[in-house]
C-alpha cells in the first residue's frame, strides 16, 4: 500500500511538472500580420493584409504540443487601393457585413527538435470551416529586450483553394482559385 502511494505521488508530481511546461502567449499586434497573395492574370501578384487581429498561443516545446487561436476582422483588409478594399468587402469576396471575422484554430503542431515546423488546424471564413496546415518558414523564441519576456513566433504559410469558402469571383475569367495565406506572428509570454 505504501509503495502504491509513492507511485501515485510520483505520477502526480510528474503530471504537474508536465503541465507547468505549457506556456501561454498573447499575439503582439505590431509584429503579427495576416496577409494574402493571389496572381492577377499571370502577370503580377495582388496582395492584401488584415490590420485588426487578435489571438493566443499555448505552447509546450518539451511535450511538442500547442494551440493557436488567431482571428482577424475582414473589414480591416488593406490592399493600398481603397476601391479594391471596398470590392473585397462585398458579397463577391468576403461578405464582411454578414461575416465580419475569420479565424484560424490550430491544435496539431509539428516540431523539429524544439522548433515548430507546421501547425494544422481549421480556418473559418464566411461561416465555413475547412482544414489548413500552415508551414513554418521561420520559428524562433527569444528574450524581448523591451518587454523583458519571452517572445515566440515565425512566418507561417499555406496555399488554400478559396472556392472551398465560397469565394469564386473571377474564376470564369481566369483568376486562380489558389491563394497564398501568410500569418506572420510574434506572441508574448504571459
From TrEMBL:
Keywords from the UniProt entry: Signal
Organism: Roseateles rivi
PANTHER family: PERIPLASMIC PROTEIN, PROTEIN YCEI
Gene3D superfamilies per the UniProt record, alphabetical: Lipid/polyisoprenoid-binding, YceI-like
Domain Lipid/polyisoprenoid-binding YceI-like positions: 24-188
Signal peptide: 1-20
Top-level division of the source organism's lineage: Bacteria
Name this polypeptide is given: YceI family protein
